[in-house]
Amino acid sequence: MSFDDLDQHAMEQLVFGTGELSPILRGHLFIERVLETLISQNMPKPHALFGRRRLGFQLKVDLARALGLLSEEYVSAFKALNNIRNDYAHRASYKVSFDQLTGLKFDWEPIQEEAYAAACTKGVEEAAQIAMIFLCWKAIHLIKKPEP
Questions:
Q1: Percentage of the chain with pLDDT > 70?
Q2: What is the pLDDT of residues 53-88, one digit of tens each?
Q3: What pTM was computed for the model?
């Protein structure tokens, strides 16, 4: 790409474009923090693991699974999200599909299914936003509230 092409791309994608990428990246970051908190709550010395090291998302999912903190439904959804995030990171023209977003869904209530179906009629951007809201909502419920 030329300088002008890259400049145009940056303006379209980074400044003006929000699309489905923003909720996916923000959701990925949020869920990564949930995983870190969940793992930390269940280790006697979590700073030994998280102190200076940078553990990848996939390893955090696998560690939480190995500790018995995630059901297979969470593991599957979190790995599907990580695959989508990686596709965006490594393919400039990547666009998530409705089929891939379906991998983020599990144990939804009927009202959530209705909201997602309505979002799908508006496009993949709306569907991604709703799917990420619901996945983040499920993720936050993994964390135990501190006792008063």
A1: 85
A2: 788 999 999 999 999 999 999 999 999 999 999 999
A3: 0.84
Contact 125, 19 (CB under 8 A): yes
The runs of H, that is alpha helices, within the chain are 3-10, 21-41, 47-50, 57-66, 72-90, 98-102, 110-122, 124-140
Q: Which residue has the tokens 């009927």?
A: 110
Tokens of 22: 């923003």
Residue for token pair 């908190």? 37
Pairwise CA distance, residues 108 & 91, whole Å: 30
Tell me how far CA of residue 139 lies from CA of 34, 50, 104, in angstroms: 7, 20, 11
Calculate the alpha carbon distances from 21 to 17, 35, 89 in Å.
9, 21, 10
Burial 45-54 (b: 16+ CB within 10 A, else e): eeeeeeeeee
CA–CA dist 126, 144 (Å, integer) = 30
CA distance 46 to 44: 6
How far apart (Å, rounded) are the C-alpha atoms in residues 68 and 88?
Answer: 30
